[in-house]
Amino acid sequence: MDYVERVLAEVKERNPGEPEFHQAATEILNGLRPVVAKHPEYEKAALLERFVEPERVIMFRVPWVDDAGKVHVNKGYRVQFNSAIGPYKGGLRFHPSVNLSIIKFLGLEQILKNSLTGLPIGGGKGGSDFDPKGKSDNEIMKFCQSFMTELYRHIGQDTDVPAGDIGVGGREIGFLFGQYKRIRDEHVGVLTGRGLTYGGSLVRTEATGYGLVYITAEALRVRGESFEGKTVVISGSGNVAIYATEKAQQLGAKVVAMYDSNGYIYDKDGIKLDVVKEIKEKERARIKVYAERVPGAEYHEGCKGIWSIPCDIALPCATQNEIDGESARLLVKNGVKYVAEGANMPTDLEGIEVFQKAGVVFLPAKAANAGGVATSALEMAQSSGRLYWTFEEVDAKLKNIMVNIYHNMDRAAKDYGCEGDYVTGANIAGFIKVAEAMMAHGIV
Ligand code: NDP
Ligand code: 2IT
């Protein structure tokens, strides 16, 4: 049993019942074999054992009262995974499926993603099993205030800086920030994704989706291609999916499908994004409504069918494990050439293998969706400097970061003998900086 196998076996034994965490650890550690082979001092320093163990796990009760006066209790989480290269940084997810395994997989991924941005941010993640769907604005506010009434003591602009993720957007960040400010009496950059009137950064709303398209555009460009005229399938219809669609359309692509957790829409003429924004951002309604409003568009119950639509480029932007081996084979059979992950871990281990064996250009989440957290770090820089950059300035920095990430993971893959394997390239490129910082800090 080599070092990586031993640590993976320990991860499974010591963290029972955490399948998503095991999955992320397996994908990451398997790619780090050549790095630990080159650095025997890492094993002596138990570097991988420390890397897979969060520095701190916080779990708390979140009681709140709904509009009818009924008392509810949710679980709250913040996993402060690794602060070797900067303060903990990562989103909060509010979704009924949230549990410790999901927060830990997201936190582990976040460490390497944040390192890949080239900016000084460590890795963390948090959230709750609270379901925002169908709740009134007042109920959302009550929940966010209760959540922050515990979380505030664990975070700070130089300690841990949360942001949004599934179920947490501008509205929720506003309520969370208001409560933090009230308790701590500090107006600081303790959360990112803030509104533009109270310290937020231009482009943060668009950043993850735009960044995903920028890095994919670079992968296309070096192969003599572009988004122009390509058919694109995008899953999800939330923040990441909407702004990936917007940028892909600006670059001349035709986006033909999107979904929410109930079903997918197919519009052979190209998705009308203004209609999607109206339904999702304003009305908070179901994507099904799109087919009622746009003549010629189809709605199909269930999500999986979206991967049977022929496309050149697939951008999964909803949630973990939305593409399994079967869906990956279908995409390949129908001619997909590029897959870039907007969501975190949307392709399962079998799906990744299918894409890579078929020669599909596969851009993994920790590289492809890093534009969101990178722009969060730009928001932190603006908060600390008490200044604002223009849309064009932030957008140019974001584009530059995404292009750099592409070339850094490409180079790492080549340097370690696996050209074109961006899963391994991204893991190695992200890990090296974190490993060097951890070694410099001694056994902590
Ligand atoms: P949103 O809450 O804005 O949107 C999530 C979308 O995914 C919705 O359309 C939702 O449908 C769908 N979805 C969620 N869970 C499921 C499920 N189990 N099955 C099918 N569809 C589902 O979240 P974001 O757009 O912010 O996040 C999407 C993904 O991108 C996540 O994986 C997140 O971790 C990742 N990400 C987000 C970043 C950000 O800056 N926001 C940055 C980097 C990554 P429904 O409304 O029906 O639930
Ligand atoms: O998964 C992610 O990178 C995010 N949800 C964004 C995190 C952030 O701190 O902006």
What would you say the CATH architecture of the domain at 207-368 is?
3-Layer(aba) Sandwich
Portion of residues in helices? Answer: 40-55%
The poorly predicted ranges are none
Main structural class: alpha/beta
Bound molecules: NADPH dihydro-nicotinamide-adenine-dinucleotide phosphate, (2Z)-2-iminopentanedioic acid
Query: In CATH, what is the class of the domain at 207-368?
Result: Alpha Beta
| Distance between the amino and carboxyl termini | 26 Å
Oligomer: single chain
Q: Shape from CA axes?
A: globular
Commentary on this structure:
The mean pLDDT is 98. Helix content is 49%, strand content 16%. Among the domains are: 54-189, 3-Layer(aba) Sandwich (Rossmann fold); 207-368, NAD(P)-binding Rossmann-like Domain (Rossmann fold). The chain is an alpha/beta fold and 444 residues long. The two termini are 26 Å apart. Helix 10 (239-250) links the parallel strand 6 (231-235) and strand 7. The chain has helices at residues 3-14, 19-31, 33-38, 40-44, 47-51, 100-116, 137-151, 170-184, 204-221, 239-250, 273-282, 288-293, 325-333, 349-357, 365-368, 370-385, 391-415, 422-440, and strands at 56-65, 71-82, 88-94, 122-128, 160-163, 231-235, 254-259, 263-266, 298-301, 313-316, 338-340, 361-363. The protein contains 18 helices and twelve strands. The strands form two sheets. It has a seven-stranded mixed beta sheet with strand order 9-8-7-6-10-11-12, with helices on both faces. A five-stranded mixed beta sheet has the order 1-2-4-3-5. (2Z)-2-iminopentanedioic acid (2IT) binds next to strand 3 and helix 16.
